[in-house]
Amino acid sequence: MRGAPLIPEPTDALLRRLVESRGAVPLGFELFPPRSAERREALRETVERLAPVAGKGFSVTMGAGGTTRTGTHDTAVEVARIAGRPVTAHLTALGLSREDALAAAEGFWEAGITRILALRGDRPRAVQGPLPPGFAHAADLVAALRDCHPFEISVAAYPEKHPEADTLEADIDHLKAKLDAGATSAVCQFVLDPEAYGRFLETCARHGIDAPIVPGLMPLEGWSRLRGFARENGAHVPDWLNHLFSQAEQAPETMPYLSAVATVEQARRLVGYGAPALHVYAMNRWPLALALARLLGH
């Protein structure tokens, strides 16, 4: 109605505050070793695009049983060279002997890669029979790495518990053991329900855990694949996301826009629950990850 007072603009809009914070919430981006020359070129472009907004740097995955050890090493070194940012190399121990796991760590150190995400990992599907004697638990790997060099060690955390854990409480006890062994932070498996991350932080605090716990954020592209992956790993799939993307299937042209909006909403809520940073599973792609960074003030 003409002459009616305007509704005042909200002064506590979280997304606005994030945009105006000039990147106060740091971002790190997870990559994986490429398997072809074409994909290596795509990875280089991704690193170049994301480096300016990667305050927490990059991380490079390793396949189950150390199957991409050489690729992980070479990719981590290349990413560090291109980006000029710190790089964390994943070290997946299950399937490797103690000697091979520590040799991989030594190779990282000699190449200037001083950050390691220490993982027990999954059993290699292609390997039949008993595995080489090695590190049965990630906490044992953390302790061994601490004895080798002054690595900056992070470990994995599972807000909705690891699929093999009996209970969430038992899984958090295991997380505490990894931190007590010498890790200084934890990176979470991605969640599709940010409230699960908030509850996880509260439960960890009750267990005396005060190390930074960084949530994993998966850009919501390729919903059918992502939903299947979430279910395999025991992550709750919210009804609203299912409804949103099922509607988008009727108009595929809208999918990129809905993916972007939903990803930003996930990030906003994770920050609202107290995320000290965001670990973005970039999947070697940069457009949505960079758009997210811009919306968060970077």
TrEMBL record:
Highest taxon of the lineage:
Bacteria
Write down a Pfam family by its short name: MTHFR
The record's InterPro entries line, in alphabetical order, gives:
FAD-linked_oxidoreductase-like, Mehydrof_redctse-like
For whether the record's keyword set contains Flavoprotein, the answer is yes
> In its UniProt record, which GO terms are filed under biological process?
methionine biosynthetic process; tetrahydrofolate interconversion
Keywords in alphabetical order: FAD, Flavoprotein, Oxidoreductase
Q: In which pathway does it act?
A: Amino-acid biosynthesis; L-methionine biosynthesis via de novo pathway; One-carbon metabolism; tetrahydrofolate interconversion
Q: Which cofactor does it need?
A: FAD
Molecular function per GO: FAD binding; methylenetetrahydrofolate reductase (NADH) activity
Record GO cellular component, one term: cytosol
List the catalytic activities from the record. Answer: (6S)-5-methyl-5,6,7,8-tetrahydrofolate + NAD(+) = (6R)-5,10-methylene-5,6,7,8-tetrahydrofolate + NADH + H(+)
Name the family.
Belongs to the methylenetetrahydrofolate reductase family.
Q: Please state what the protein is called.
A: Methylenetetrahydrofolate reductase
Q: What is the lineage of its organism?
A: Bacteria, Pseudomonadati, Pseudomonadota, Alphaproteobacteria, Rhodobacterales
